[in-house]
Every structure is written in C-alpha cells, then in structure tokens.
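User: I'm writing a short report section on ligand binding and want a predicted complex to refer to. Could you take this sequence and 1,4-anhydro-D-erythro-pent-1-enitol and write out the structure as tokens? A short remark afterwards would be nice.
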Amino acid sequence: QNASLSDEERDEYSDGTVKLRNSNIELMDQDILYHLALGSESHDLIEMFGDVKFVCMGGTPKRMENFAHFIMNEIGYKLPAGTQLQDISAYSYRYSMYKVGPVLAVSHGMGTPSVSILMHEMIKLMYHSRCEDPVFIRIGTCGGIGIDGGTVVITEEAYDAQLRPSHEFTILGKTVHRPAKLDKKLARELKALSGDEDPYDTIIGKTLCTNDFYEGQGRLDGAFCEFSEQDKMDYLNTLSEHGIVNIEMESTIFAALTHHAGIKAAVICVALLNRLNGDQVNSPKEVMHEWQQRPQELVSRYIKKVLAQK
Ligand code: R2B
Ligand code: URA
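Assistant: Sure. The structure tokens for the complex follow:
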C-alpha cells in the first residue's frame, strides 16, 4: 500500500498511535493540561476525546466556534437533545475548544509561543485519549506574495525567517532545530479537493513563518521601520525566487511539533492581501469573512471524504 510513496513520505506515519516521546508523563499520577482546563485524572479523556480524528486549529476563538457550527452542519452531526456546542476549555480563559463528533476545533492564538504551548497539550491530549491516527490541520490567514487576496494556500514546506526548513527551539539555553515537515501526500489530497468551480485559486506552495507581523514580515507600516521600501521589495522578491508564496506566523512550530510526534498535518491559509501591492490589511470585513470560509470549506470536503470511506 505504501509502494507509491516516496521515502520521505513513508517514514513516520505507519502505525497510527500518537507517540509521546516523554517517559516522564507515564510516571506521573496525573497530568494537568493547564491551558486547556483539562486533566488526565479530573476528566475521562478517553470517553471525552477517544473518537477524535480531525484536530482543526486556527487563530481566533470566534473563527473556530464558527468552524465548529459549520462542520456540524456539513457532516450532519446532531448534538444530544437539549445540549448546545460548548467551549470545553472556557475556564482556561486561554484557548477555546469545541468538539463535533470526530472533529475538534481549537483556537491557537497568534505566533509561536502560543501555538507551542497548545501543541504540547494537544499532543498529550491525543495520547491520554488514545486517539488513533488523528490528523492536525491549521486553518489560518496569511499575507500572499504575488497572489491575490482570497487565494487559498496549502503549505508544502514551512520555512523560518532565515529560510531554513526547520523550527529553532531554545531548550536549556541551547539551540535545537527540528524539521518543519508537513505531510506532502495530505497536501496533494487537499489540493485535489479544490474544485474547478471554486471562484478562487487554491495552490500548493512554500510558506514563510515569522515571529512578528510588522518588521518581521518586512512591513513599512509598523511602529518602527528602519529599512527602505527597496529593501522590503528585495526581500519579498528573494522569498518569491525561493518559491515562497505566503507569510504567516505559526507554520514552522506547527509542522515541527506534529512531525516530531508522528502526527500527519497540513496548513491551509487564505491570503488577506498581496504583499507585493502593500502592507495594510484593508479589504472590507465582509469580504475577508467570506475569504476565511475558504480553507474551512476545503477541510470540510476532506473530512467528509475520509468519513465516507469508513
Ligand atoms: C496570520 O494572521 C495572524 C496575524 O495577523 C497570525 O496569527 C498569522 O499567522
Ligand atoms: N497574517 C500574517 O501573518 N501576515 C499577513 O500579512 C496577513 C495575515
């Protein structure tokens, strides 16, 4: 069955279970997932989450709540009579989490530190819940490079701001790099679900991940700017020459930690603007709202396809 995969694609994902590469956890009486307001002893995690197959993450609590309602309708999931969708992590006051059958919708906030904390706890949640073969998908927004606002980008490979295909960690004061690899087969599968009838483009390309929205993404409109417009354009053009089509702030940490855990993952972002034309995000609210449905629509097609195969 694996004969059609390249070596690179074959390595990690064969046995399905989420590996916890930390033997300390097994020795603990309980594990408190502090930022999710959940715990391995206070909650029956197997009962609550054991059936999860799709973990969808995005920046804002509201977008993920909307996604939860949307996917509920798409897969025809019915909540138990008299109940409503509830934010499972409401009392963390940090992240929001909604569960719709096999789908979890979780907000991750902005940038690496926020995503890093969440990923540790989500990977442990999958482990404690004994989830099999969960797929993690980030649905986000980004700035495009040479692509129109509204274009959907499926990340092929994530790069840090120095154009390295890895995420740089500082652990005990030492620098550690972990490869920011995503599942290429999943990316192609998602791309194949984009329709010719869609009134927008869906492309696969390389993604740059930065630690800042303004100076870190070469914007001229931050509180500070100590480079010229020419410097900015030279940088964006260099990115483009390397095949980078979009810039966001979470892909390398998301890719590095899912890959390290042996979890299949994808990043799908909609471009809010073409950075070659400007820096301000100034499209009308309603237009941007509609654009942000696009990655959700693609993920819904994927989830429905996988569920139909079961
Ligand atoms: C995209 O949008 C946010 C910044 O506006 C950031 O979280 C990202 O990756
Ligand atoms: N998110 C980013 O990180 N950059 C943009 O330009 C737009 C959204």
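A remark for your report: Residues 1-5, 7-14 have pLDDT under 50 and may be disordered. The CA atoms of residues 64 and 169 lie 27 Å apart.
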